[in-house]
Sequence to fold (177 residues):
Amino acid sequence: MYNVSVEQIIKTKAPKTAWLFKLIMAAACVAAFTTIPSTYTLGMFLTVILIILTVLLFRYYNSEYEYSLVDGELTVDKIMSRSFRRRCGVYNVARASLIAKAGSQEALRREYERLHTMDFTAHDGQENVVVMYALDNANNEQVRILLEPDSRMLAALKNAAPKGAFQISEEIPDEDV
Fold:
């Protein structure tokens, strides 16, 4: 097993319904602002609360995932508006049972299993998505993880995964990572 340390940051896309929530919150702020002349303090209080909630909503949809592979453990963090970091999980790649493309035969064979699925993708499409069946270190159970690794991360996953678990047939540069 190689001692590797690779990091990758993926910018996520907001869901298609996010624009609707943003529009509703902006309209609610305008409506609350127009109530200030008739309700005075209540209108000002409501306007301030709605503005704060709107800012939080816009920040919530400005997020990215950071994949970090160190010594056979994949750590995934969610970074919200480049200031708040939340640990999504730590997964043992050295004990992974399968790493394959999302639509491949190997992944489809295991699709029926009732596992907790963790989606850490950018929600762009399925062409770069890799599915990994690995052990979650927090509760010691098998989970299905969806990732969008680049070529460096794929090479590091190939080096860290056990023999036979890595099922991606594309040519990956065998460089020192």
Observations:
- The beta strands are 5-11, 63-70, 73-80, 84-92, 98-101, 116-119, 130-136, 141-147.
- The chain has a mean pLDDT of 88.
- DSSP finds five helices and eight strands in the chain.
